Amino acid sequence: MEKFPHTLTAKLQQRIEHNAIRSLHVTTNLIDFSSNDYLGFSKSATIFEETHRYLVEQNIKENGATGSRLLSGNHPLYDVVEAMLCDFHESEAATIFNSGYDANIGFFSSVPQRGDIILYDEFIHASIRDGITMSHAKSYKFKHNNIAHLEEMLKRVQQDGTIYVVTESVFSMDGDTPDLKTMIALCKTHSAYIVVDEAHAVGVLGNNGCGAIQNLEIQHHIFARIVTFGKAIGCHGAAILGSNELKTYLVNFARSLIYTTALPPHSLVTIKMSYAAMQNVPKELNHLERLQQNIQYFKSQVAIHNLEDLFIVSNSAIQSCIINGATNVKLIAAKLQEKGFDVKPILAPTIPKGKERLRFCLHAYNSEQEMKDVLSLLSIFVA
Question: What is the biggest distance separating any 2 CA atoms in the chain, rounded to whole angstroms?
């Protein structure tokens, strides 16, 4: 075995010294307050069986895609699923990517050009940051959800190139939402294009889980929306929603679409059946309604246990409790896990140092008793 490079060893040692070293863990049977499976679709026997039934009925017996979408991998199912996405999300076009990471890398590395400007929220997802890094455009961050600072930045940047403003409809670490309508108005005033990542909003907000954008009826003012299927939809993949011109551009220039093997038919059918499950369920089995009830119940219990000062204000399925210090937040997470609750600590560099937190992800299948018990324990551990 070759000796490991000393520069890499030093970086690992620095993580260890800051008590921020990461490792992989097998999924546990603890009560789930950690996963992004907000509606419980990843374990849905109905979706699994409907997917299998569809594949059998259509005589689709393929394990893999065999190549990229531009070569041999663009199965006819892509047209079926993308048309379904356009109809559901009220979009002119949809382009499926293998993951949310691939979608964001593909978009931001190819769409903004040299001489263009990207203004992005300081808490934007790492996949967007990575895509921006690969772009030739200049980029500047604005303060989190700060409309005044965004306006100041829009006035400051040069006007000879195209301006893109980038945000999320629900932020993955804070669970909060920007003032999207005001942002759109600002972008119109300054001739800027707005791009919104809806990863944590689809399946959680809006009619049948359509997302925050459609819930606000602003979908026709958004240049590009990124929707992902690995969270509330419970499967895998992502799509960029926008105009036909944008789709054509991405097919020609988004390298994370062009140079990777496509999703297999099974993945595409699972997306189709998960969307069907969001729309066609009896009221007594409505996962989205139960999730919304659980969000409100959790917030009421936060107040009852006098924990409001610790939690970031959020109406989404992500409820974050700020506990300063990596050692402290890891200790409390371990205590909760010992009591049977899967609550994960979130550490720097994922979030700013000093903003370490416990991230509670709520689900349609969490019971009121589970939420009450975990917050009762938290109130004891942070006292």
Answer: 60
